[in-house]
Each structure stands twice: as structure tokens, then as C-alpha cells.
């Protein structure tokens, strides 16, 4: 049996996956969803440790580690710490890079400047206020209201800390799902790591707006792996 370990992005919580989880369960898969939204001055390494601890609780042999957006960096560091536990890494519009990569090293200067200014002026210098739902591509009024009520500030340190990778994660197969139209070069981030890249039409928060095609794509990944193992 396959377990999908679903890791939410910045400003979000476990709830980000609640429209995808029933679809995966209906197909017979299991899910584990760590919560990275704890209040406090957490960093990327703290979040990676939370995900690694979640991997340790899994009962299934086949683990697929999925990271959305910022958590592309998180899941790669967690997988690097537990390479024997993870069978596949999936980035969903995920920021990712080699050892030493961080959100701020990958993002354009205007993004970095905007985030730093928001933290300084509205986040006491150490946390980043949540942007409006439209920043995640959410324009439907009901979905925007639902999302706005749940978004929480993000510790600035999660964007400044560089990943610490031994190279073990690069021996784990990976797939980068990127949303079209692209907001940032997520396809290129995945391709640079040697991951297979797959396009999915929808906004950055595709798990909220298009849960069915995203779930179908995740399930097809494991079906294709099983088919190849039988060849």
C-alpha cells in the first residue's frame, strides 16, 4: 500500500490538502499530513525535521513525499535525512534546488525585497504576514474567503535558511508537477534536479481549485511505477 506524505506550503496548514485527501483514500492510498504551521520562530530545518519525524511513523513500505511550493525545499531535506524511507519525491509548483538553496536564493530580487519589507513593517521583523488569496491564484469569492480565514503568518527564517543536503536525496526518483500558466520557473527547478516534469493547468494553489486532476496525477505516478516494476 502507498502512503502519500503531503506537506503544505508557506502560510498554509494541514487543511490545504483536505480536498485531495478523500480522493486518494477512495483509490486505496493512505495519507500522512504533517503540520508546519506551528506558531513560533521556526526555520526550514525545523520543518524538515517535522517531516522526517512523520516519515518515521509510516507503516507502509511505499512512501511518496509531496511538497507544495515552499515545501519543495522542505521535503528534499527531509528525504535526504531518510533516503531509505522515501520511494519518490513529488514537487507541486515547488521551490527546490541543490544543497544550499533557499527561498531567497531561488526567488527573484523583487520577491525577496517585498517579503523582507512586509516582515519588517508588519511582522515585527521575524514573520511574514500572509498575502491575499489572489497571490495564490484564488479568485473565486467563496474559495478566497475560505482561504483568507485560514492563512497564517510565516516565519521569515523559513525563507532565509539554506537547505543542508548530503546528496542522498538525489538518488531518489522525483517528479515536478508545475502549474500552467507558470508564476515562477517551477518546471526549470525540477528539470535542473533531473526530475520528470509534468504540466497541470491551474493556479498555484491547484490542490484547492483542481483537486481531482491533481489527485489523479499523483495516483498515476504510483501506477506507472508499479507497471515498470513488473516489466
CATH superfamily name?
A: Alpha/Beta hydrolase fold, catalytic domain
CATH topology: Rossmann fold
How do the helices and strands follow one another from N- to C-terminus?
Answer: EHEHEHEHHEHEHEHEHH
- Read across the widest sheet, the strand sequence of neighbours is 2-1-3-4-7-8
Number of helices: 10
- Number of beta-strand segments: 8
* Low-pLDDT runs: none
* Overall 3D form: globular
Mean pLDDT: 95
Q: How many separate domains?
A: 1
The first-level CATH class is given as Alpha Beta
How large a portion of the residues is in β-strands, by DSSP E? Answer: 15-25%
**Range of helix content:** 25-40%
Q: Which properties best describe this structure?
A:
single chain, alpha/beta, Rossmann fold, 6-stranded parallel β-sheet, two-stranded antiparallel sheet, 10 helices
Amino acid at each position: 500500500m502507498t502512503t502519500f506524505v503531503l506537506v503544505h506550503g508557506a502560510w498554509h496548514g494541514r487543511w490545504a490538502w483536505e480536498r485531495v485527501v478523500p480522493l486518494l483514500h477512495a483509490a486505496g492510498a493512505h495519507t500522512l499530513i504533517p503540520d508546519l504551521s506551528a506558531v513560533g520562530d521556526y526555520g526550514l530545518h525545523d520543518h524538515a525535521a517535522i517531516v522526517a519525524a512523520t516519515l518515521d511513523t509510516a507503516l507502509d513500505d511505499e512512501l511518496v513525499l509531496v511538497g507544495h511550493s515552499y515545501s519543495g525545499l522542505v521535503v528534499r531535506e527531509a528525504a535526504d535525512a531518510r533516503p531509505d524511507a522515501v520511494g519518490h519525491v513529488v514537487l507541486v509548483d515547488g521551490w527546490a534546488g541543490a544543497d544550499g538553496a533557499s527561498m531567497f536564493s531561488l526567488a527573484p530580487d523583487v520577491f525577496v525585497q517585498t517579503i523582507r519589507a512586509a516582515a519588517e513593517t508588519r511582522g515585527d521583523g521575524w514573520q511574514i504576514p500572509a498575502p491575499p488569496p489572489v497571490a495564490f491564484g484564488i479568485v473565486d469569492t467563496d474559495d478566497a474567503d475560505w482561504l483568507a480565514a485560514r492563512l497564517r503568518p510565516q516565519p521569515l527564517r523559513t525563507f532565509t535558511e539554506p537547505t543542508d543536503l548530503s546528496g542522498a536525496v538525489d538518488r531518489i526518483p522525483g517528479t515536478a508537477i508545475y502549474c500552467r500558466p507558470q508564476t515562477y520557473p517551477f518546471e526549470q527547478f525540477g528539470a535542473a534536479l533531473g526530475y520528470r516534469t509534468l504540466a497541470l493547468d491551474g493556479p498555484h494553489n491547484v490542490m484547492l481549485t483542481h483537486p481531482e486532476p491533481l489527485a489523479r496525477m499523483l495516483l498515476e505516478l504510483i501506477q506507472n511505477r508499479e507497471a515498470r516494476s513488473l516489466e
